[in-house]
Amino acid sequence: MAKITFDGVEVEVPDGTTILNAARQIGGSIVPPAMCYYTPLKGSGGKCRACLVRVAAGSAKDPRPMPKLVASCVTPVQDGMIVENTTSEQVLNVRKGIVEMLLINHPLDCPVCDQAGECDLQNFAFEHGVSTTRYQEERRTFEKIDIGPLIQLHMTRCILCYRCVYTANQITDNRVHGVLGRGDAAEIGTYIENIIDNDFSGNVIDVCPVGALTDKTFRFKSRVWFTKPVNAHRDCPKCSGNVVLWYKGKEVLRTTARKDQYGEVKEWICNECRFEKKDTSDWTIEGPAHIERSSVISANHYELPVLNQSVVADLPESTQRELAQNPPLKLGS
Amino acid sequence: MGRKLLTEHINVEGINTFEVYRKHGGYRSVEKALKTMTPDEVVEEVKKSGLRGRGGAGFPTGMKWSFLAKPEGVPRYLVCNADESEPGTFKDRQLMSKLPHLLVEGMITSSYALGANTSYIYIRGELLYVLRILEKAIAEAYANGFLGKNILGSGYDLDLHVHPGGGAYICGEETALLESLEGKRGNPRNKPPFPAVQGLYARPTVVNNVESIAAVVPIINEGGDEYAKLGVGKSTGTKLISACGHLNKPGIYEIELGVPVEEFIYSDEYCGGIWKGRELKAVVAGGSSVPILPKELILKTAAGENRLMTYESLSDGGFVTGTMLGSGGFIAMDETTCIVRNTWNFSRFYHHESCGQCSPCREGTGWLEKVLHRLEHGHGHMEDIDLLVSVAKQIEGNTICPLGEAAAWPVAAAVRHFRHEFEWHVTNAKEAAQPGAVYRANGVLV
């Protein structure tokens, strides 16, 4: 076990834990933002530099500060480490710079982007960025590419976090999804315009922090904040079948995997659940999905949800536990 | 002229063949090390020599070797970084193509010191002809029992491979090099873990520059203490300097560290002064990534002392008034050089060579290039000059690998020392945009 001090808060974590995960155990607003790190994906992280923190003391044995800011998502903790995130002016300034860098070639087409409202880059820029730009040059653009009939790649929006590359490598067969080119001409590609053809390809949409990979069955159907997320499950032979259905009226507009508070997928879902089962009758509804109060999606208006108690006993154990922790409002309460 | 340890026999006819090289004292270090020394003694000699990495960072080689993790039953690797592609640096190419056996000899001795039974030379993709020379030398070494099983009857086995890269500058960064050697995309890795713990194929690995490995040969032959007598202070031994630019005699010089910069530029023994009788304007002392210095600061430090060709003297004054020895790519520029254009050119290189993995470098290098392009072509504004400094600062220190710094330093230094030229490019935009236009103190075109 290693004891570290993060922004003045002490926390004890197992050896080998990264600084970011140690901070997540503390939770709250001191957790560094992460645009590329994704816990379920091995090898992810270290690329976007959004989570840079200052290590004021390396360890109890060697209390010298680290010379440069370090990426908290890939740097393991040492016993006695003192880390500064929001308490360091330098870190906050650098983070402003990172936002600026990520945005200079981003098209800022949020008004027509399907990801707007649940976009990591939007949130990151809103919290840490400045409202103006010093960039006058032309922005980098790409043609849109269809990766199969269900997924569209719009590289112009991509921030090259590599999450989808790791997803395609680690949870699907037949590696065709990777990065082509170099520098700011680098692009996600399926050499050349291949189709990712397997049952779990749709997960690349969920891991994308921006609107670069979008669900073609949902494109331009609705703004996300006009839809209502509802937890549901079904007996799926391929995956866990635990999903979030996004309703507009009585229509299921899209299906996504369930995510935790850091936007990370809890369980991967298969393409059948994601793209084909769009009727309420395909699903057992569990209740409204939890949405952070800070999210624009929570600004829509729920009717009082109904929890069908006869269903609860049949739910998977994990879902029952979650319901016990975050009980939905009861009718009439 | 100082002593030459590496290039003494470089012009001997047929020195690239095993017989001639052997006749001139080649492979003595292998015999000495394998027959009379333990691996730890070899490491100790290199430590004593004070040899510093010749690839650019100048980290003590012996120290690097002693950091190598040595778990039981796990193979270790030595990788030679021959991916020399920094603009202005061309020393390794010459060393390898003329004296291939020197590198092979150094690799055998160094591998023995580190206990590596498989070693690699990762060579820049453009240097295919050098690769062939090296492969021939390696085949000769195998044939004569210096490589393979049970070398010289000592029981030590070593296999040496040459691997060509695809020609990417980023693969000169040690972890990107290892990725590329493993057959993956050449993206630098996050550190820690460092290569000394988890390098090639997740095994402990040492990555050294060609010249560092070649320097092991004279160190073992003559002893670390003898080697340390050359040079000044912590900059020991000799260093290859590849001098280019507006010099009378550009080329590769093996100097004893400690030669004054002024002597190096102006004496007939070395570069022989600036060509066409012109004035020196600026010098980039260690390859394109190190800060550029104007004439006054490269010849004398801010304190007025003579600047010497050593790691310490060149970095005297930090980045405010100093620079770095780097990899020894010495670029001299005469008074007809436009610093803005030159900086733009460097920036263009780093923009092209950024791997695109981490955001400050991927976006920042392109931004720097575009702003410099604008300034050079007469579309700049006064704010752009501060913008350059600010963007460079946003890249520096926030990236995965040092390419970010390499892109940021030359720009920041050019603005620091030649701000008036940048301003002239804004105020006299029309003039500055003309081809060949150069700032002169009185504003006259060349």
TrEMBL record, chain A:
The record's Gene Ontology cellular component field reads: membrane
Name all 4Fe-4S His(Cys)3-ligated-type domain ranges: 90-129
Q: What is its main location?
A: membrane
Q: Could you tell me where this protein is found in the cell?
A: Membrane
The chain positions of domain 2Fe-2S ferredoxin-type read 2-89
Query: Which keywords accompany this UniProt record?
Result: 2Fe-2S, 4Fe-4S, Iron, Iron-sulfur, Membrane, Metal-binding, NAD, Translocase
Q: Which InterPro entries match?
A: 2Fe-2S_ferredoxin-like_sf, 2Fe-2S_ferredoxin-type, NADH_UbQ_OxRdtase_ferredoxin, NADH_UbQ_OxRdtase_Gsu_4Fe4S-bd, Prok_molybdopt-oxidoreductase
Please report a single Pfam family linked to this protein: Fer4_Nqo3
Entry GO MF terms: 2 iron, 2 sulfur cluster binding; 4 iron, 4 sulfur cluster binding; metal ion binding; oxidoreductase activity
* Cofactor(s) of this protein: [2Fe-2S] cluster; [4Fe-4S] cluster
Name the protein family: Belongs to the complex I 75 kDa subunit family.
Q: What is this protein called?
A: NADH dehydrogenase subunit G
According to its UniProt entry, this protein's organism is Hymenobacter mucosus
UniProtKB/TrEMBL annotation, chain B:
Superkingdom of the source species:
Bacteria
Which keywords appear in this protein's UniProt record, sorted alphabetically? 4Fe-4S, Flavoprotein, FMN, Iron, Iron-sulfur, Metal-binding, NAD, Quinone, Translocase
Q: Which GO terms describe its molecular function?
A: 4 iron, 4 sulfur cluster binding; FMN binding; metal ion binding; NAD binding; NADH dehydrogenase (ubiquinone) activity; NADH dehydrogenase activity; quinone binding
Query: What InterPro entries does the record point to?
Result: ComplexI_51kDa_subunit, NADH-UbQ_OxRdtase_51kDa_CS, NADH-UbQ_OxRdtase_suF, Nuo51_FMN-bd, Nuo51_FMN-bd_sf, Nuop51_4Fe4S-bd, Nuop51_4Fe4S-bd_sf
Tell me the NCBIfam families matching this sequence.
nuoF_fam (TIGR01959), PRK13596.1 (NF010120)
What family does this belong to? Belongs to the complex I 51 kDa subunit family.
Under what name is this protein listed? NADH-quinone oxidoreductase subunit F
Originating organism:
Hymenobacter mucosus
